[in-house]
């Protein structure tokens, strides 16, 4: 995955230069402040918070992304741990979607079923009106469990024509917007789609897509020469914000970003695909909202609950694969766009921990998805895939937050 990068150890250097290099490259800090909250497995949270396991050992192996349905069941996109070629992924798809349940309400998922398997690199999904929608490039699919046994027995291809790449710089989502449309993030891999209305859409550049749940009305919201987008959220105004890697070739320590996607906006990098796709420009390319170092941001969420306290309401949280962190972004309006104040929320000194998603449960706690050490494709600094290092799902709670028997 473009956002999946791992960093080699730095040589012995004076502390100042080590710290500076780690910040600029997005590596894990060698000098962490002592944790004041209750941590777990090398993870540390702020004072007043605590971490706990949300899945027992063996329930998940290499989870990537997760989302809830209306009843609190957790759909988990899981890798098989194989980093084969794109051709092999399409010919022999081995990824799957798990369905987890917490039957006794103690915050730990204790029941697992395989909702769907033999999928080619699903990169997210959403549950809507009895079905689970997922991107599984080249397709946007709908999976339905018609007899309520926890296993999908119907698979429909809603739209097709996106390009899969086994490094996971590919189509991701969908994410359900407040306007009733489904939004998808795409990388600079190319597409050739025939819409429900019979229109051909073909191009090489990256896009933010949207369509109705039945696949009609497919159109692009934003586009450009950027390499990869992973996840997006919606502000109360309906505006879209997402994670992105490689808005520029690494320069001055920056490479990745949080983006404010504006309808019709064309975004960097200033690659030839912008001209080749005939994207219209009325001025300079759109700016980056929040510049980030080489952290490889993946999952993103906006906190809506009250359990963490008033200061956290409306904050964004992102999962950083490279650093092992969950970063808190305090967001505010800034003219026609937004700005953020960024600070680590969950830190890790475990070099094998790679968060890829973060999401809010109904009780206001956060779930952190750690994908483990399996990924190597497209990551020249990973060196070797560590399939023996499996992932897991963890929960972050506010210690003094009241617990409710049925938060839904």
Structure explained in plain terms:
- With 408 residues, the chain is mainly β.
- The protein contains three helices and 28 strands.
- The protein has helices at residues 15-25, 86-91, 273-276; strands spanning 43-44, 49-53, 63-68, 74-78, 95-101, 111-119, 125-128, 131-136, 139-144, 154-160, 172-176, 182-185, 191-194, 200-203, 206-211, 219-224, 228-234, 240-245, 256-261, 266-267, 290-292, 297-302, 316-320, 325-334, 337-348, 355-360, 366-370, 392-398.
- The strands form seven sheets. Strands 1-25-24-23-22 form a five-stranded antiparallel beta sheet, with no helix packed on it. The protein has a five-stranded mixed beta sheet with strand order 11-12-15-16-20, with no helix packed on it.
Category from helices, strands and their pairing = mainly beta
- The best one-word shape is globular
If you compute it from the alpha carbons, what radius of gyration comes out, rounded to the nearest whole angstrom? 20 Å
Strand line-up across the major sheet: 1-25-24-23-22
Distance between the termini: 35 Å
Mean pLDDT: 86
Q: Using DSSP, what is the number of strands?
A: 28
Query: Could you estimate the helical fraction of the residues in percent?
Result: under 10%
Helix segment tally: 3
Content of β-strand: 35-45%
Biggest beta-sheet profile: 5 strands, antiparallel
**Low-pLDDT residue intervals, each spanning 5 or more residues:** 1-35
């Amino acid at each position: 995955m473009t956002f999946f990068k791992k960093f080699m150890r730095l040589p012995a250097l004076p502390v100042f230069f080590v710290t500076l290099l780690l910040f600029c490259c997005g590596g894990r800090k060698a000098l962490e402040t002592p944790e004041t909250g209750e941590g777990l497995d090398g993870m540390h949270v702020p004072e007043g918070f605590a971490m706990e396991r949300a899945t027992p050992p063996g329930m998940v192996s290499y989870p990537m992304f997760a989302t809830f349905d209306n009843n609190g069941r957790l759909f988990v996109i899981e890798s098989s741990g194989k980093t084969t070629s794109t051709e092999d992924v399409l010919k022999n798809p081995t990824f799957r979607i798990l369905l987890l349940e917490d039957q006794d309400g103690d915050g730990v998922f204790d029941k697992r079923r395989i909702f769907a398997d033999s999928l080619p690199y699903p990169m997210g999904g959403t549950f809507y009106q009895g079905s689970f929608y997922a991107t599984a490039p080249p397709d946007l699919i709908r999976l339905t469990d018609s007899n309520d046994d926890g296993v999908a027995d119907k698979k429909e291809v809603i739209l097709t024509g996106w390009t899969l790449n086994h490094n996971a710089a590919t189509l991701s989502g969908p994410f359900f917007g407040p306007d009733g449309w489904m939004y998808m993030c795409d990388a600079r891999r190319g597409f050739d789609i025939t819409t429900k209305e019979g229109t051909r859409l073909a191009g090489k550049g990256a896009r933010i897509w949207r369509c109705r749940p039945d696949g009609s009305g497919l159109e692009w919201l934003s586009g450009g020469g950027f390499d990869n987008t992973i996840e997006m959220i919606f502000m109360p105004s309906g505006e879209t914000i997402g994670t992105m890697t490689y808005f520029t070739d690494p320069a001055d320590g920056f490479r990745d970003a949080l983006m404010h996607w504006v309808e019709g906006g064309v975004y960097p990098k200033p690659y030839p695909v912008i001209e080749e796709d005939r994207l219209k420009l009325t001025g300079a390319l759109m700016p980056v909202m929040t510049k980030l170092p080489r952290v490889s941001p993946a999952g993103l969420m906006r906190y809506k609950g009250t359990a963490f306290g008033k200061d956290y309401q409306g904050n964004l949280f992102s999962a950083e694969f490279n650093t092992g962190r969950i970063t808190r972004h305090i967001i505010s309006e800034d003219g026609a766009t937004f700005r953020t104040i960024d600070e680590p929320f969950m830190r890790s000194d475990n070099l094998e921990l790679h968060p890829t998603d973060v999401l809010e449960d109904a009780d206001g706690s956060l779930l952190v998805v750690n994908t483990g050490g399996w990924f190597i494709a497209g990551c020249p600094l990973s060196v070797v895939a560590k399939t023996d290092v499996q992932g897991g799902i963890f929960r972050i709670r506010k210690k003094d937050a009241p617990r409710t028997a049925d938060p839904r």
